[in-house]
Amino acid sequence: MSSLAMSSFVEQQIVLHQFTAKHSAQARLMLGWSREDLARHAGVAVESVQQFEGLGEVDDKTRLALAFRLEAEGLVFFPGFAPGWGMRADARCAG
């Protein structure tokens, strides 16, 4: 496995273990998004968001789609903590 492929694999495994159903619901509230909004932005079915946030169970592909979409909005996720605002690539330093 190439180092780039390995890096991508490791990143996906970290996301799968750090991103929880509670994170999803909290992140939506921070963004002012409904479950329908998140589903549309992530390209998944509304039922998938409902299932994940209700039961915490969806396939890895769906969980990654949700996590990556919320991360694209500047949110970061760590086990045991509410989502936080991270540094966005397009953020500019003031001053």
UniProtKB/TrEMBL annotation:
GO molecular function: DNA binding
Domain of life: Bacteria
Signal sequence bounds: none
Coiled coil segments of this chain: none
SUPFAM superfamilies: lambda repressor-like DNA-binding domains
Protein name: XRE family transcriptional regulator
Organism per entry: Pseudomonas fluorescens
